[in-house]
TrEMBL record:
Biased composition (Basic and acidic residues): 245-256, 276-288
Domain named MSP: residues: 302-420
Domain CRAL-TRIO: 62-216
Region annotation Disordered: where it falls in the sequence: 231-289
Keyword Transmembrane attributed: yes
Matches recorded under InterPro entries: CRAL-TRIO_dom (IPR001251), CRAL-TRIO_dom_sf (IPR036865), CRAL/TRIO_N_dom_sf (IPR036273), ER-organelle_contact (IPR053012), Ig-like_fold (IPR013783), MSP_dom (IPR000535), PapD-like_sf (IPR008962)
Source organism of this protein record: Podiceps cristatus
The protein's name in its UniProt record: Motile sperm domain-containing protein 2
Listed Pfam families: CRAL_TRIO, Motile_Sperm
Keyword Metal-binding applies: no
Keywords: Membrane, Transmembrane, Transmembrane helix
Amino acid sequence: YLLDKSDKYDSRDVERLQQDDKWVENYLIWRHSIVDDTLKMIDESFQWRKEYTVNDLTESVLPKWLFEHGALFLHGYDKEGYKLFWFRVKHHIKDAKHQLEKKKLVAFWLEYYAKRDHGKPLTVIFDMAETGISHIDLDFVRFIVNCFTDYYPNFLTKIVIFEMPWIMNAAFKIVKGWLGPEAVSMLKFTNKNDIQDYVSAEYLPPYMGGTDSFKYSYPPLVDDDFQTPLCENGPITSEDEPESKEEIDADTKETGELNEEQNLNQKKMNSIEQISKSEETEKTEIKPKNAKKALTTFKGPLLHISPAEELYFGSKETGEKKCLIVLTNVTKNIVAFKVRTTAPEKYRVKPSNSSCEPGTSLDIIVSLHGGFAASLQDRFLIMAAEMDQSSGAGVPELTQFWKEVPRTKVMEHRLRCHVIESSKPSSLTLKDNAFNIPAKTNEDLHIQVIVYSFVLYRLQEQIDRCLWFQQLSVVLSLLSVTVVAFCFYL
């Protein structure tokens, strides 16, 4: 069916469809596994992708003023860890002359994110604060809605509408008609009092009741809120600053519990005096205790990264504070890398700005500072680029390299955090220990069974003497057996 219309599609989309099972699965999920509906959606979305030249949309082919305007951008995460796609309605004015360019800007952002974060869904925020009649553009709103309902399958989690003016109520009744019943359930009308039900204060601007000091500007593109890396000025996630006494003690304890081979390797590394103290700390860092080998690997063109998608931290109760990232250089050149995070106040990353030799693997340890807990909104960005063999890989060389390397030659991969909650006690356990009553041992239960049996035997002996209670005797006999069996079961 699709091959018959292949001339109407971009060949890159057809090739991707044949190779990307996840993409096909998303179409099926969005159309409830109904094959005919799925094929129809693929047909329509592929024709649309070719019409809008989606695969070729870049910053250079769109007018710069569109980006500078700040009506559309990606920034922050909702409480479920989904990326926020902002539409600042007050910055949009209906303009038929530039409508196609504005629609291509929407397609640019959606495709940019879909390719970069492997199709992870988005949450859309229609920020309608300070808007009026001049900002009403139903054609543009319908286009955004259609992108999620018809062109990008399984890509929408919810639409959060902030402070919709009463004058737009009639307009949004029309929008609901476009969405269909399932998508309508994704609409969340909010104001300053309840928007934090969906987005925490750290990703909301002050006028929404939040604490986010982010101010949109261009260039560059908003870069996922990752903080300035080690080799640049500003706050950093992963500067290898001296550790606190508690962290040093904890690391020393873990070191003592490692096997003999690791200790010998550590001593051997410490004997190399030519390496600076800071580099020594990075290169001889020992894996966290009980670190599990990741079962998934992202296979990039420069580095294979394990785990592929998520770092598993424990909650405050479980106390698991460290994770391991393994980088493997699959090129024939030295690969420089650096790590960023959206929460620099929480994490220490070692090493955070270094290089990996050809064909070798390198361990990166991500640890939480004391008193902090990981959250689903936290993200890590690993950036990598090939270096010339003759350029050197010291700190000065790396600093200069990251200033000069073109963005198009930088591989990027993102990891999100997953929090492992502590197991909750069962209701039976809570009842048994609610008043600090010690749990019964097997010996206690055995004695209790003997006592119950003896009491029931004596009672039955007395009843047997009375003819009037012959039948009752039989009942009590059965009851005795039942109680004994129940007690042994306990």
